[in-house]
Design brief:
2 domains, seven-stranded mixed beta sheet, three-stranded antiparallel beta sheet, globular
Length: about 425
């Protein structure tokens, strides 16, 4: 069936006329599927994506940024006391950025459904929800939780929470927001087919996830309810101390509008974005963007000069966050191998360009940032790979080691010959044992 002339013209204007010829060769059912997606496509955006070049080289002077060491943080600090008051007053909300699928884990489902508990195989969603539930029990006011999804995971995540009865959280304290998806382009600037009747798209990054909270009205509802602080964190790090009064309080004991957690890098090649001062403003530089001589530079004490590795956990003043999201976030490009099909339906892998928005682009816009160190062994055990480093097995081992530390510090002997698991509802540290 011939395509509508206006649609063909729009495709041609966006440099995608090959899709018109491809669609006309499909059977009616598949053609309808593809045309439905094409009709909903923002062709102006596609044109902008084609015009977007490769990421620019690092510009501006790069300097180390001051930070609060782990030894300066914790219970009893002025920041911790202020953070506890904010929690008790009901002025803190949490956002779990969870739109990604678990393809690298070879898991058929959203990453948050992955079972990671060392003994019970408690899933990531349960662990994080129990952290927020524990905060409500401790401070007497249940903080709200928002979970961001993507087009590929939205229905599955919502259904999973329903089947689990929201892990005990009242539904009025739980919100969902679906982040947008962006098409990818091949090396010739053409849209990529994921199937003969479907264009390949991917979620628009952690920046896009937080933009979804604004677009879907979650942030506005929180502001109306008296929320002033939003803590964001990613779904792949079960070791993270989600509710950290000292960290939250860093936004209220100085002039910071944004706080971020870091671990200290020990090796230049560690694949972590580095928090720095660039051109006089706070920034995060991707590890691949930092020149080798800067990545390897060391201070007189032997530590890496640029050692503040981001763990993807942040806290924002809500007024700052909403104001800056209204200005939007720029698109970043990443050249990656993309699974796709050619126009005759054969499965192939093409090098192409994916597009994302990053929360890091809010850093230079702040007038004040608080950088808080955490210990890798206590708060950073991400699950990124099916095997080897940063895999479920390494995360389970780190969780087990942390629970054993709690036992020892509480004067108890940890069990031998078996792994340990503690729910956040039962223990958050040795004091609970």
């Amino acid at each position: 069936m011939k395509l509508d002339r206006s649609l063909r013209a729009r495709l041609a204007k966006a440099g995608q006329e090959f899709l018109a010829d491809h669609a006309e060769g499909l059977d009616p059912a598949r053609q309808e599927m593809l045309l439905t997606q094409l009709e909903g496509l923002d062709f102006d955006l596609v044109a902008r994506l084609r015009a977007a070049g490769e990421e620019s080289a690092l510009d501006g002077d790069v300097e180390p940024l001051p930070y609060v060491s782990f030894q300066e943080r914790g219970p009893g600090t002025a920041a911790a006391e202020h953070g506890a008051r904010e929690l008790a007053a009901g002025r803190v909300a949490f956002a779990l950025l969870a739109g990604g699928q678990a393809s690298r884990l070879r898991w058929d489902g959203p990453k948050g459904t992955y079972p990671v508990g060392p003994v019970t195989e408690r899933c990531l969603f349960r662990i994080f929800t129990e952290h927020v539930l524990r905060a409500g029990r401790d401070c007497g006011r249940q903080p709200p939780l928002a979970v961001t999804t993507s087009a590929a995971t939205d229905a599955a995540i919502r259904a999973f929470f329903e089947r689990q009865d929201c892990f005990g959280m009242d539904r009025q304290d739980l919100a969902f927001a679906c982040q947008a998806s962006l098409p990818a382009l091949d090396e010739h600037g053409r849209l990529v087919l994921n199937a003969p009747d479907r264009i390949f798209t991917n979620p628009d990054g952690h920046g896009g996830a937080v933009l979804a909270l604004e677009r879907d009205g979650v942030l506005a509802a929180w502001e109306e309810a008296g929320i002033t602080t939003v803590v964001t964190f990613q779904v792949d790090n079960p070791l993270l101390r989600v509710v950290d009064p000292d960290f939250i309080g860093r936004l209220h004991t100085g002039d910071a509008q944004l706080a971020t957690k870091v671990i200290l890098k020990e090796r230049p090649e560690q694949k972590l974005g580095v928090v720095v001062r660039r051109a006089g403003r706070p920034a995060t530089v991707e590890y691949s963007e930092l020149p080798a001589e800067l990545a390897a530079a060391r201070d007189a004490d032997g530590q890496l000069t640029f050692r503040l590795g981001s763990v993807g956990a942040h806290a924002f003043r809500l007024d700052f966050l909403r104001r800056e999201l209204a200005r939007d976030l720029p698109l970043h490009t990443a050249r990656k191998e993309i699974p796709c099909v050619n126009t005759d339906g054969a499965a192939i892998r093409h090098w192409g360009v994916k597009f994302e928005r990053f929360l890091f682009d809010l850093f230079p816009r702040t007038d004040g940032i608080a950088v808080a160190e955490v210990l890798r062994e206590r708060e950073y055990g991400p699950i990124k790979n099916a095997e080897g480093n940063e895999s479920p097995e390494t995360a389970r081992a780190m969780l087990d080691a942390e629970y054993r530390r709690w036992h020892r510090e509480a004067g108890k002997t940890p069990p031998t010959g078996e792994r340990i698991e503690l729910s956040p509802l039962d223990a958050l540290g040795p004091e609970d044992l």
